[in-house]
Design goal:
single chain; 587 residues; GROEL, domain 1; GROEL, domain 2; GroEL; 3 domains; four-stranded mixed beta sheet; 20 helices; 46% helix; elongated; disordered C terminus
Length: 587
């Protein structure tokens, strides 16, 4: 058993800060990991770096869990999460030393400092839940702009938003290429009838079925292919693949003859003919295959492995079988084709049959897959993404970065919550937002932190609130300080540029129009020439800050860490009788 003090929290977060600083910002480097198998993996992703660490410290594990939870929801911010948290802990540590109770209380000094830190952390969270969204709306959004959707190619800001994201994850060389590729993918999957949020939600939910990793090629070989790539090959090789319009059926289980005994066996010859098989079972199965053939079916898609008899009879009938398809890929195929899976094979109807534009093999890298196309009656343009990398680790890094970018866009267009409902749930830390508009971005390079820090310093609060607002204002500046750590003069230059723009523009009363349709929305553009062309999501920054303050409050509420050598056993008190001895209860 070990008591947790303020210094323990500072040590844990400081150690994590030292790790992520190596890969933070546009000048950050790659972190090399060596797995137990000897495989070397390179990464700049904060979530990947933090989760790869072997941590014994329970406080550090809690911080990593909080950062990873936030990153999994919004797609970004793990490194910034740790940096802001570390800065807040240092600021609270300094403020706790100035607490008058620390010198007059009879309690141990460390206990008083820890209690003061806990109070400040709770006040920071309460202040942010009540004041932060109003501050951002009035003081930050006027210096940003609202992105149009779904006009990907004619709107440079969307490209700049993604390029800035990929710059910190994959480096500068390929960020333009990969952002353009992702824009093209999203453009094809976006329906004019859907909202930006629903389109992005669909791509995020179906992501495992939308991309194919290929190793041994540079990233620039990545491309889009029409239709859907199913990551399986045809069960039996054919000299001819289906040509022209294809009719297919989705099988929801095994295709077997009716009343076939489970233990019945069969023998298949070298030419694929059935040599030994129950005559009744064979005729039953042949009738099913013949009926499928009469419907014009030439492709069977199955989620499970079919029997040898099914494959043999299907081969004789020139019906192609694709088996063991993953649930995600089969769900996407059903969504695009409108197919209804067949569960009772003796009641197959014509409405179970769907038409495909094509169904053919495709060779991607060292693997052969099935490539299907859909008739051009879709409101979207179905396509699959081929992601290349020199090695398995690089391909995984590229795929993860593109999925995280999709989550970041999804968070950017998250619909506003209808009611203000503060809560202590880390997984819904931004649910307190009531009127925050969708799709707003701002110049990258510390603009968000400079603007919000300045607003906190200029606004007048009560004495107690002024203390926590000053802590938050000073802590926010750690982000641009680390961004320009290699160029200290740049930090002062950018800060001066932002303050100059604040004086020139001032507060704008036009933000009430941001809930209008995208084509009629008002754009607030601030030409921060010194910051470059990168952009970042305002709402993602907002959620990041609330998630950090949630984690901070939880950290300082830990009083004791209990070290155990085995699994803890939970004893229900309702099952404890009066005769139970103290030794039995302890065990």
């Amino acid at each position: 058993m070990e008591s947790v003090r303020l210094k323990h929290v500072a040590q844990a977060v400081g150690a994590l800060e030292a790790v992520v600083l190596r890969a933070f910002g546009p000048d950050g480097g790659q972190v090399l990991f060596t797995r137990d198998t000897g495989q070397a993996v390179l990464s700049r992703g904060g979530a990947r770096i933090l989760t790869a660490l072997r941590l014994d410290n329970p406080l550090a594990r809690m911080i990593v869990d909080c950062a990873s939870t936030h990153s999994a929801r919004t797609g970004d911010g793990s490194k910034t999460f740790v940096l802001i948290l570390a800065s807040l802990v240092r600021m609270i540590d300094a403020a706790a030393d100035k607490d008058p109770l620390a010198s007059h209380s009879r309690c141990p000094r460390e206990d008083v400092r820890s209690a003061s830190a806990r109070r400040l952390a709770d006040e920071l969270l309460s202040f942010s839940l009540q004041q932060l969204d109003d501050l951002l709306t009035a003081e930050v959004l006027p210096f940003g702009q609202r992105l149009l959707w779904p006009d990907f190619h004619s709107t440079a800001p969307i490209q700049n938003l993604l390029s800035s994201f990929f710059h910190t994850r994959l480096g500068y060389n390929n960020c333009r290429f990969i952002s353009g590729l992702l824009c093209e993918l999203l453009s094809n999957w976006t329906s004019k009838d859907n909202t930006p949020f629903s389109s992005l939600q669909f791509v995020n939910d179906t992501w495992p079925a939308l991309y194919t990793p290929v190793t041994g090629f540079p990233l620039t070989y990545s491309r889009l292919v029409e239709g859907q790539v199913i990551h399986r090959d045809f069960a039996a090789p054919f000299s001819l693949t289906p040509q022209g319009p294809i009719k297919a059926v989705v099988l929801d289980g095994h295709l077997h003859p009716k009343f076939l005994d489970a233990g019945e066996t069969l023998e298949i010859g070298d030419n694929g003919n059935i040599l030994q098989f129950s005559s009744f079972a064979e005729s039953s199965l042949q009738s099913v295959i013949s009926f499928l053939k009469s419907l014009g079916v030439s492709v069977l898609l199955s989620s499970v492995k079919q029997s040898v008899a099914v494959l043999a009879l299907a081969a004789q009938a020139q019906i192609h079988v694709v088996e063991c398809i993953s649930p995600e890929e089969l769900a996407l195929f059903r969504h695009l084709s409108g197919a209804r899976p067949v569960s009772d094979y003796w009641s197959i109807q014509s409405d179970h049959v769907v038409s495909l534009e094509f169904c053919k093999p495709i060779l991607l890298g060292a693997h052969r897959y099935v490539h299907v196309g859909f008739p051009e009656k879709q409101t979207i343009k179905p396509c699959s993404l081929v992601i290349c990398g020199a090695g398995e680790g690089q391909t995984e890094q590229h795929a993860t970065a593109m999925q995280d970018a999709t989550r970041m866009l999804l968070t950017t267009w998250q619909p506003p919550i209808s009611a203000r409902s503060p809560n202590n749930s880390l997984t819904s830390s931004a649910s307190c937002c009531q009127t925050f508009p969708q799709g707003y971005v701002i110049a990258a390079g510390g603009t968000f932190e400079f603007l919000l820090s300045h607003a906190l310093q200029q606004k007048t609060f009560s004495r107690d609130v002024n203390i926590v607002s000053q802590i938050l204002a000073d802590s926010l500046l750690c982000v641009p300080r680390h961004i320009y750590s290699h160029r200290p003069r740049r930090f002062a230059q950018v800060q001066s540029e932002v303050l100059k723009r604040i004086q020139e523009q001032g507060a704008s009363p036009m933000l009430c129009q941001t809930n209008a349709p995208a084509e009629n929305s008002v754009h607030f553009k601030a030409e921060f020439s010194t910051l470059g062309s990168g952009l970042e999501s305002v709402f993602c920054k907002y959620q990041l800050l609330l998630a950090v303050l949630q984690c901070l409050s939880r950290l300082f509420r830990i009083d004791t860490v209990i070290h155990t050598r085995g699994l803890l056993k939970t004893i229900s008190r309702t099952n404890i009788s009066w005769e139970d001895s103290e030794d039995e209860l302890e065990n």
